[in-house]
Design brief:
Layout: H1 2-20, E1 26-30, H2 32-40, H3 46-54, E2 58-62, H4 64-72, H5 78-85, E3 88-89, H6 100-108, E4 116-119, H7 123-130, E5 137-141, E6 144-147, H8 152-166, H9 170-193, H10 199-208, H11 243-259, H12 269-275
Parallel strand pairs: 1-2, 1-4, 2-3, 4-5
Antiparallel strand pairs: 5-6
Helix pairs in contact: 2-5, 4-5
């Protein structure tokens, strides 16, 4: 439940920042009923609680007429008066004291040029401000704070303003018509210069002109590459043994021949004496 509430509040804040140009730190314009409710339900510090709801730092404001109204309510609202005096003063040009409802209505005006979030417990005042396009409204319920979602009239006004911005103004329409006239004139000049050529031939001639301006992005085509010449090289046949191996074989053969002992045949001595 808490996560859904937070998402709903962030969606409302995103609507006012996108469509009406609200920026942080957000300015909160409080009346006496809202300040008194914060104290009674101990929602303190108030700026931290409101910044958690809006997801951005805030600065709280009030007016001199609100202070005068709290002062007139007597001792029961003395603590609320002391807290309200610590808030930043919003510009209020009323020489004579007005009610908080009239004072806040004059400060907000028809367009809320100061981009105030209005915080009040007055139900009628909340409904009144929801009819003004760029006025987000806050209120408290027991020890919880709530941000009113954008009303139907606020959403319709934002949609109409977006459609108005998307339309062409008079200057843009004039520039577009002049550009169209110039393109028609160039086509007529081309027809006069090349009366016997068709449109296809003209396009071919234009495309063959060497200019630095390109109408379309030209991509380089990859050409078919041949095989690697090193991979196609034939291997050499080893018909002859290496010279070093041949010398080693000859040395081995000479060592073997030297190692063999020569056998001598001797005649027997008896044979020699017999002959004598």
């Amino acid at each position: 439940m808490r996560l859904k509430k937070q998402k709903r509040h962030r969606r409302s804040v995103r609507f006012f920042t996108t469509c009406y140009g609200f920026r942080s730190p957000f300015k909160i314009l409080c009346d006496g009923t809202f300040i008194h409710h914060l104290l009674v339900n101990r929602i303190t510090p108030a700026d931290t609680a409101i910044s958690n709801i809006l997801g951005a730092p805030v600065k709280m404001f009030t007016t001199r007429c609100v202070l005068a109204e709290l002062k007139s309510l007597g001792e029961a609202y003395s603590e609320s008066l002391n807290v309200a005096r610590d808030l930043a003063p919003a510009r209020c040009d009323h020489e004579k004291r007005k009610s908080a409802v009239d004072c806040l209505s004059d400060v907000i005006g028809e367009s809320n040029s100061e981009h105030f979030f209005v915080a009040t417990q007055d139900v009628d005042l909340r409904r009144k401000f929801q009819e003004i396009p760029a006025v987000p409204v806050m209120f408290a319920l027991r020890n919880a704070l709530f941000l009113e979602p954008p009303s139907q009239s606020q959403q319709q006004f934002a949609k109409a303003a977006e459609e108005e911005r998307s339309r062409l103004n008079e200057l843009e329409i004039k520039m577009l018509s002049n550009k169209r006239k110039r393109s028609l004139e160039t086509d007529e000049q081309a027809d006069e210069a090349f009366p016997n050529e068709t449109i296809v031939d003209l396009k071919k001639n234009v495309s063959t002109r060497k200019t630095d301006v390109k109408d379309k992005v030209q991509f380089k085509r990859k050409k078919a590459k041949g095989p690697n010449p090193l991979s196609c090289k034939k291997k050499k046949k080893d018909n002859q043994k290496p010279v070093a191996q041949k010398e080693v074989n000859e040395n081995v053969e000479t060592v073997r021949s030297r190692g063999k002992k020569r056998k001598r045949s001797r005649k027997p001595k008896n044979v020699a004496t017999a002959t004598d």
